[in-house]
Specification:
149 residues; 4 helices; 36% helix; GNAT_dom; Bact_Acetyltransf; Acyl_CoA_acyltransferase; GNAT family N-acetyltransferase; transferase
Length: 149
């Protein structure tokens, strides 16, 4: 496999929506509203300050992607880069697709002088946790709380 990583374009919106829907179902058992999801994905392209998507391809075939968003840290005087909406098509998993995507995010984050790379992972998703640890990431000492609105 010869992977290339590129910024996503509006032409990728259908694939990004399919991947996000599949990821939510696989990891959390959630059924996302397709119309809301499409507006959310499109919203990144309409307002680029929200973040950016990257897509991994092999011979022009899209195999996966992810979203990067930023959070300002006054403590660190820099942005935390959050990796979100990670998805790799099942037939390409364990083939280095996420590793290639992560390497590109890390390269861009270092170039932008980001404070750190962060992501959420389901507490039970041991395989993903091992993948992230293998890339040099460590569990954070923060627990996350949420109130749905």
């Amino acid at each position: 496999m010869t992977l290339s990583i590129r910024p996503a374009t509006v032409a990728d919106i259908p694939a990004l929506c399919v991947w996000n829907h599949a990821m939510a179902r696989e990891t959390e058992g959630l059924e996302l509203d397709p119309a809301v999801l499409e507006r959310g994905v499109r919203g990144v392209f309409e307002q680029p300050q929200r973040g950016f998507y990257l897509v991994a391809e092999d011979a022009g075939v899209a195999l996966g992607g992810l979203l990067v968003t930023r959070e300002w840290s006054d403590w660190r005087n820099g942005d935390y880069w959050w990796i979100q909406s990670v998805y790799v098509v099942p037939e390409a998993r364990r083939g280095g697709v996420f590793r290639a995507l992560y390497a590109e995010v890390e390269r861009r984050a270092r170039e932008a002088r980001a404070a750190s790379l962060r992501l959420y992972v389901e507490a039970e998703n041991r395989r993903a946790q091992q993948t992230y640890a293998g890339l040099g990431m460590h569990p954070s000492h923060y627990a996350m709380y949420e109130q749905l609105l």
